[in-house]
Structure formats: structure tokens, C-alpha cells
Here is the input.
Amino acid sequence: MASHRSPRRTPQPGQGWPARVTVLSAAAAGAAAALVPAAPAGAKPDDQPSAAGLNSRIDRLYEEAEVATEKYNGVAERAGKLREQVANAQDGVARGQAKVNRLRDSLGSLAGAQYRSGGLDPAVALMLTEDPDSYLDKAATLDRIGSRQAARLRQLQSAQRHLAQQRNEAAAKLERLDGLQRSLEQQKKDIQKKLAAARRLLDRLTPEQRANRDGHRAKSAAGVDLGGAKPSSERAAAAVAAVKSAVGRPYAWGAAGPGSFDCSGLTQWAYKQAGTSIPRTSQAQRSAGRQVPLSQARPGDLVIYRDDASHVGMYVGGGQVVHAPHPGAPVRYDPVGMMPVSSVTRP
Here is the structure.
């Protein structure tokens, strides 16, 4: 029987091969495209934060650093007072030890005299022990001690107890001081980290943007109309004169003059020149006098800013304050409403 298989056809040029090549080429192109990372939708390679955006971030970092600085100032003030207390406690311990030594020497002289006159009374020997308390509690021992000897022994006993108390108090104060100093070191690192971040952002501004950053707000003494407002007192007038004299001096966190200032350091220094002591931090300065409405502010009043009272300036009249703004900006005049006012205090 004859076979009816159809003969195999060979593809003709221009028919099957071009189509297969096209399919393979498309597959290869798709695989290559898969190796290239896709760009985010809407992204531009040369996009940069705007100057306004950078300035906003810089201002936020400065505000955070200022809050931390005022906290640092408060801890530093407490540490300073405690350091003085520790020094006084240590002096008291030294004086107490000297008193104990004198009393022991006196009892030693008495024992020596008794020994030379016929032997050391056992009761007197007990007087020279490190812990006479246990012997004083024994009536039999007291019966063998004369009134003069007993008085000296009780004096020594009292001095030793007082000395032990002084040592315990001094040790406790020293331990608290060590804790405050560790806290200061940590807060210092936090402040420096925030300021370093702000400096890095400042470096991303152009020279013109940096020059304009604060220049549009800064004023010189000659360009400020302070009006005819009168200070509330002679000391307020003296503080205003002092704060005006500081205009142009640099900001430095933790500084309270005379060469550089932070915000509360400036106002504290100005009132110190007027012979008046006010607290170190802006939070404490808020309570350093009588509260008055902003509409009734007079030169010398302290204007406290933000709800957390983390900034302070001194009102000098004409709707202006003098304050230490932040690193890179010197002590200057600014409108009293430059930021939200929390309260106005008249020291």
C-alpha cells in the first residue's frame, strides 16, 4: 500500500524565521530592562530641597537645641549650688575630724598622767578606744570614771557621731553631684549633635541664601525706633542699658557673658549689671517677677516665648526686644512678636 505522508516543507525566506527572531529580540530587551532599577514616579535626579525647606529644618533644630540648652542651664545651676554645698560639707568634715583629734589627744594626755601617777585606770583606757559608745552604755564602767573624765568622753562621743553624720551627708551630696555631671555631659552631646546637624544644613545653602537667612530681620541700634516708653524702675533702666550694650556680641549656648550669651544668659547678665539677681533659665525667669499683659510691657520687662518658655528676650520699647537668637546670629533687636509670646514678666 502506498504511503500518504505529506512531504516536509522547508521555510521559505521571509516567512517563519523573521517572526521568531522578532519574538526572541523582544524577550531579550524585556530581560535587559528588568535589570535597570525603575525610577520613582515623579522623581527628578537633580531635585534639591528649597531654601525655605532648609531654613525651616534649621530653625527647628535651633529650637530643639535651645530647649535642650535651657535644660542644660538648669542642671548646671543646680550642679553649681551642689558643688558649693559639697565643698562646705568637706570643710565641715575636716573641722569635725580636727575636733575629734583634739579630744582624743586630751584624753590621751589624761591617760598618760594617770599612768605616771600609778598605772592606767582600765576605764581611762576604754576612753581611748575607737568606739566609746558601747562602754558608755555600761553603768559599771561609768561608775569607775570620774565626772571630769565622763564629760570628756561624752564630748568625744558626740564629736564622733557628728563627724560620721557629716561624712555621710558629704558622700550623698558628692554622689548627687556626680549624677548631675553625667547628665550635663549627655545633654552637652545632645546639644552639639543638633547644632552640628544645623550647620550641615546651613552648608547646603548658597552664600546668598546664608547672607539673607537672618539679614532681613537683623537691625542695628541706629535703625531702631524705641519710642518714648519709660522703664518701670531704675534697675529696669540699668538692665535695658546693659542689654543694649551687648547688641552685636555672639551667641554661644550655655554662655552668660560678658563676651557671648545664650538667651537667658543675656537677660540674667543684664539684670546682674543692674545689681539684681534673677534665675539662670528662661523657665525660671518667667516666675522671677510680676506678670503683666503684653499690651502693658515696658522697657526692662522679660518677654518669654513659646509654651515651654524655652526662649526669652528683653523688651526695650517701640515694639522691640533685644535677645540672643541662636548660633551664627549675634545679639540683636527683633520685633516683640517674632515668635509666640508665652508671658511677660516684670522683675
Observations:
- The two ends are 127 Å apart (CA to CA).
- Residues 71 and 281 are 8 Å apart (CA to CA).
